[in-house]
Design goal:
The complex is a heterodimer of chains A (216) and B (204). Chain A is α+β, with helices and mostly antiparallel strands and 216 residues long. In chain A, 48% of the residues lie in helices and 22% in strands. In chain A, strands 1-2-3-4-5 form a 5-stranded antiparallel β-sheet, with helices on both faces. In chain A, helix 1 (3-54) crosses helix 2. Chain A starts with a helix and ends with a helix. Chain B has a domain at 19-149. Chain B contains 9 helices and 2 strands; from the N terminus they run H-H-H-H-H-H-H-E-E-H-H. In chain B, helix 1 runs parallel beside helix 7 (126-156). With 204 residues, chain B is mostly helical. The chains are: A alpha+beta (216), B mainly alpha (204). The interface between A and B is medium-sized, with 29 and 33 residues.
Chain lengths: 216, 204
């Protein structure tokens, strides 16, 4: 092979790669852009569902009803650099819960949970795990109702009970074979409760609540 | 004429030349997704789709792909299809997409796809390559489904998320962890090689 044809071959390689990349990236971009709205909507609905569920509100199936219920019940707020959600009863407007979205490191990746806390700022209303990459079948089972539902009415700071029945208010049943995940959940909950109780205390004292009650 | 090679391809991939138990490819994803049956099914569908289409595309381009950069081109093609699968699942089946997490993206690294593109698609016409992609995808799928069936049954006492063995059943935690596959897969290969393939060898 002469030197010239070698150069030609190299240039062809680069041009070919460039063209193939262009074609395929265009295809992928097209698929991404054409589904983007749907994906964003899905994520938003998922978050709304998680917030309502963690506050112990039954979530309707249809997207429209969900949107309306969310608008009636939930108010986004920020205090002390933390954003959270103020949940009211749909019909009466009575405040019933605070929901905090909090994350922490799990075994493989981030765990994000929506944590519903009662007006007293201490006991939990519900926990919904929004994002987790734990081992499916082990740590991944934190999303199952059996694990999530046990937090209802419990108070922190939490202790884990391995392979046993939790008896006290601050104990929860860890998942066997997923100690690191269970521990991560414990840390997220304890940290959130600590932060939340302070914020809720201030919120309950603030005049803003009174004006709402005055309106009713 | 066209039918017999396709039939042969299917028989080869499902039996003697199966990607999982004969070529021992795609083991990483076998470890990762077979602990719950539902995840396995989605993974298998994704793999069949990607293998078939990437085989088809590589085969279409095979006369122009310079041999020096063929692997770059193959990976690019495979990655594009996998990302499209990921996007489509995200848009249409958000719950399953969340459960699968990073596994869909990991289809890219499945050696079966690359292996078929290299070994088959580069030297065969598009139609047959497409069939080969589907066949090896199916060959992979049925082995994984069998393994996943037993892992979920023993590890969680359930099938497709529905509890079948009842409360008294004690879950074998090892079955849902990666090491469980080594046992299941080894037993599976042992049975296949010992019983099915041996008979064939003796006949030959």
């Amino acid at each position: 092979m002469t030197k010239k044809s070698k150069t030609k071959q190299r240039v062809f390689n680069i041009v070919f790669m460039f063209l193939v990349t262009l074609v395929f990236i265009s295809g992928v971009s097209f698929a991404y852009l054409s589904t983007r709205q749907k994906v964003l909507l899905n994520e938003k609905l998922y978050l709304m569902r998680g917030i309502l569920e963690s506050a112990g509100i039954a979530v309707p199936e249809s997207e429209k009803e969900l949107g309306e219920l969310y608008k009636d019940c939930v108010e986004e707020k920020t205090a002390a650099g933390e954003s959270f959600y103020r949940i009211r009863e749909a019909n009466t407007g009575k405040p019933i819960a605070y929901v905090f979205i909090q994350s922490g490191p799990g075994l493989w990746g981030r765990i994000t949970a929506a944590i519903g806390i009662k007006e007293d700022g201490k006991s939990l209303l519900g926990v919904v795990f929004l994002e987790q990459n734990e081992t499916p079948g082990l740590g991944g089972r934190i999303t199952e109702p059996r694990f999530c539902n046990q937090f209802k009415g419990k108070m922190g700071p939490f202790q884990m009970v391995p392979e046993g029945e939790p008896t006290r208010k601050n104990e929860f049943d860890a998942i066997t074979g997923a100690t690191i995940t269970s521990n991560a959940v414990r840390r997220i909950l304890n940290r959130t409760l600590e932060k939340a109780s302070q914020i809720i205390k201030e919120e309950n004292q603030s005049p803003e609540i009174k004006t709402v009650e005055g309106k009713l | 004429m066209a039918r017999s090679p396709v039939k042969k391809i299917f028989l080869e991939n499902l039996g003697r030349n199966n990607p999982v138990f004969a070529q021992v490819l795609g083991i990483c994803s076998t470890l990762a997704v077979t602990n719950v049956l539902k995840n396995t099914v989605i993974m298998c569908l994704g793999l069949v789709f990607t293998t078939a289409l990437s085989n088809f595309t590589v085969s279409l381009l095979r006369k122009w792909i310079p041999s020096r950069i063929r692997m770059m081109v193959e990976v690019l093609i495979i990655a594009s299809y996998v990302i499209i699968v990921d996007i489509v699942i995200k848009a249409t089946l958000p719950d399953i997409s969340r459960q699968l997490g990073p596994y869909v993206g990991l289809i890219i690294t499945n050696c079966i796809i690359m292996g078929r593109a290299e070994a088959f698609a580069l030297s065969n016409p598009p139609g047959v390559s497409f069939a080969d992609g589907i066949a090896s995808g199916l060959g992979y799928s049925y082995v994984l489904l069998i393994i996943a069936f037993f892992r979920e049954l023993l590890g969680s006492g359930a099938i497709w998320g529905i509890s079948v063995l009842g409360e008294a059943w004690v879950n074998w935690s090892i079955m849902v962890m990666a090491p469980g596959v080594f046992f299941m897969l080894a037993i599976f290969i042992w049975i296949i090689k010992g019983v099915v393939l041996k008979q064939e060898e003796e006949k030959a």
